[in-house]
DNA sequence: AGCACGCCGACT
DNA sequence: GTCGGCGTGCTC
């Protein structure tokens, strides 16, 4: 450091703390030359030398050269290669949210930023809006269209010209997909001077009227009350739980609130469970609002994601609809966050940095001073317990907004019944009855493939995946064995590998076999199987949905995918083929999930004037959850479930964290978790209970052994205190380097 | 996570 | 002799 004779420093060099994407719970310090042309700011991205490589990181702290007190002498620090952004990419509330997540989830900074940043930005690409352009029809084009000059077989060209002719102001290049126009067609047309492309700098948004209210729409009293309650809170943080039965008009409540938000010049962020539901939601919103709506989900290309993210950031997008990670879009003027189907599991990230978008959304909203609306017909116990604690305000929609008949439930006790491929006589009769009435039937079975086991009838050999120690699922059509755990697969044997017997038989029931059985029973019915295997193709799901709505399908057979969000007005019977697994599982949350599932699938039926029926097949017909759901509804079930959790001191009444470790051998895994436990045990003054190490539910996965150590406490602060106090020591454990490990806060399920 | 360094086995 | 296996250690 240089000093002037009078003692004041001349060195304005800075020391910059950077989050780099490595699995280390620390930042890295760099020097920044005093004459660097861009002033450093927290929230800018930088490129930095890192070992022998160059990485992109995010500035998280700036200190003066003189004030730096690290382990390394300041001269030994490397220089930042470059600052990538002129200004911080993030406003103060997202930076604060990052800080909160780091503290709460005890995750490495770099991993958190990897989740927050769109991948293009994480890779160091410039945060630049691509220039948009407008396609317009020319006078020649109009004449060509009118004078039938377009070649007869050039149907696409004709359609495209017609669409451009309808849109007087032209169509934005970035919006071509909305109009189903191909770029190649436009290029051909441009060659004939029938269309013209104009490059523009900003999005033209000028609408006199932002909403198109549907005709004759009368709100229910409850809807009106809910809208009023939330409206009064638009300028401040408050989480609302919109507990609305199916068809009670939750979406209409969202739309009215969004309208107010937009009129105030603010933006609305809407999270939906999965990509499959974005087109549907998008359409509903587009029909209603003449504003710029963007989507953010994994179905987009990286460049599209970046562009939409930047539109949210600049404020050019007034409504942002997306899945989980859309929560992290920077917003120019946030007005409201809406989480639809808030109970849905897909709001939890289960890879890498594990977080709950619902929980983080509430924190974010509190930093932004805006409301959050959590909507569901079957709310999570977490949200309901937050209502009891006055952290969340509950608004009920119990009346149906659309005319709809009530759903009739029937439980079929499978004990001592003879089944035809998993179907009871009553269910078969029910299907026939509904088909005769020209209605559609939905059969739900949460297990894809033909059969979960392939077994040798002679010697008892069964098809085990060596890497996971669980049974391969048999897929009949492809004649393959597939491990649904690790994804490995191999050809199915026709002879027993052990005794060469030909008596190798599939045991158990999957959707593929169910479809086969139903086809045999109802040869005249048109049957569609909808699961991950049949919807792999990109547009497959949409094609199925169209076919179902168009009445081309009589019986739908499917997994989880069918339970979510879609409205099939002509479905009047829903059959739940096998509820046993869902009722009794090692996971204490199983009944909660099953109750949500029943509520959701039963929402698929009875949407029209015809009466809806739900038939549940189970061996545990006396399970209390079933009668609660059927006779008193989800709310009553949830109340008693919460009571049970309180009594057993289980989450969400208590708070949990989990260390999970995995490696190709058991010993290092156990050693690491035992070492971890020892470190945690040093703070026995904190009221945190330690459970384990114990094997994970599926101990072996993809050739790795997995063990867990649970931390549980009724005092969330003490739990976090314990983790904060011990994390460094655990991370620097010698045994930590021999395994892959992570902490999960508020863990759920296994995986 | 990457990437380099380093120390032992089977190859031209 | 040396090519390359992955164990260990470091990243500012």
From TrEMBL:
Obligatory cofactor(s): Zn(2+)
Reaction equation(s) it catalyzes:
Couples ATP hydrolysis with the unwinding of duplex DNA by translocating in the 3'-5' direction; ATP + H2O = ADP + phosphate + H(+)
GO biological process: what's one of them?
Answer: DNA recombination
Where would I find the Helicase ATP-binding domain in this sequence?
Answer: 231-397
Q: Name one Pfam family in it.
A: Helicase_C
The residues that hold Zn(2+) 1 are 456, 459, 496, 499
Keywords linked to the UniProt accession:
ATP-binding, DNA replication, DNA-binding, Helicase, Hydrolase, Isomerase, Metal-binding, Nucleotide-binding, Primosome, Zinc
Q: What is its EC number?
A: 5.6.2.4
Positions annotated to bind Zn(2+) 2: 465, 468, 483, 486
* Function of the molecule: Initiates the restart of stalled replication forks, which reloads the replicative helicase on sites other than the origin of replication. Recognizes and binds to abandoned replication forks and remodels them to uncover a helicase loading site. Promotes assembly of the primosome at these replication forks.
The entry sums up its family as follows:
Belongs to the helicase family. PriA subfamily.
Quaternary structure? Component of the replication restart primosome.
Record HAMAP family: PriA (MF_00983)
Name under which the protein is recorded: Replication restart protein PriA
Organism annotation: Aliikangiella marina
